[in-house]
Amino acid sequence: xxxxxxxxxxxxxxxxxxxxxxxxxxxxxxxxxxxxxxxxxxxxxxxxxxxxxxxxxxxxxxxxxxxxxxxxxxxxxxxxxxxxxxxxxxxxxxxxxxxxxxxxxxxxxxxxxxxxxxxxxxxxxxxxxxxxxxxxxxxxxxxxxxxxxxxxxxxxxxxxxxxxxxxxxxxxxxxxxxxxxxxxxxxxxxxxxxxxxxxxxxxxxxxxxxxxxxxxxxxxxxxxxxxxxxxxxxxxxxxxxxxxxxxxxxxxxxxxxxxxxxxxxxxxxxxxxxxxxxxxxxxxxxxxxxxxxxxxxxxxxxxxxxxxxxxxxxxxxxxxxxxxxxxxxxxxxxxxxxxxxxxxxxxxxxxxxxxxxxxxxxxxxxxxxxxxxxxxxxxxxxxxxxxxxxxxxxxxxxxxxxxxxxxxxxxxxxxxxxxxxxxxxxxxxxxxxxxxx
Length: 437
Description:
6 helices; elongated; Neuraminidase; TIR domain-containing protein; Cueball_EGF_LRP_Nidogen; 2 domains; signal; Rossmann fold; five-stranded parallel sheet; LDLR_classB_rpt; 6-blade_b-propeller_TolB-like
């Protein structure tokens, strides 16, 4: 354990040393152009030009290292690799009907976007496949994602002017804020705050994620000019006409002009060099040693997901973590044959298993077969005292080799019944060979 701790400490020190030479960049868009500003030197350079469209939104995936953006006037979602050698090459991902804003989901690897005039929110995977429109509302504008609680927040921009939210499949639509004209949305995932830019009066506001405790953060003193915002911890980066602003919300409110451009600014994105280098080191150093560190930190629950509704399993895992349970899921693991032995030990060292069945069409790959085999063998080796908890969603079919265990029935509104689920987890699964119906 001491060795593992020292390795992690050395990693943190290495990141700190490297970060002294790193220079965060602010990526922003103007008409037909995407630029970057080095926040340390103040130097501005053009990344892409002659895009033949206004660009109102930008987002970045640190895993694949692509910046995604909607080309509103060309009816297409595009991307380019960043950082990369110049010239930067634009790739068209998917066609869309006058897309105005987008956000990426790094967990499920999807791009979500709003279509201004159709009033639709649509999605596709990072390579443009599996396109689907998940909901339709009034005319739409801004969009952001609470990736922890799995809510999409978006704004209506037609006869109604609201901030609304819905689940990632378009269900459970709710109004969060009424009577507000919003062009930019962002979430501080550490502070659990929602931020938005009121376009018609140029005012930056904030609330809790359910729309309570509304505060005014900043008045830009400009109307009909501020569009995009990007939230990074308690720092909010805003476009404000020709200006790019940095606003700090905590511990004290303050605003700074980072740059004044010659063209009107629209979308904005912070590229975090420190986060990028840390993720690179994480993949190269931390992930290989985590299979050993688990010996010191066994999981309370190892969750094996069967089905196609990854979102439901991720939400369930997150809710358990909120209750201070130490959890892991096969959704977070890669079926790498070289480390299967270590992962098997990782699973068997867990105190309990949970098998989460979200649909009945996905119990067909060797990775899941392998996980289920571990459950059966461990249950047998512990003489029946290590029974799995089985939760099935919306009457999904239980695989035949798991029918000997009791299954707990759930519906899509399971987050509202979390206390009942926690009580069940404390009681333990029934040892009888019966499945609830």
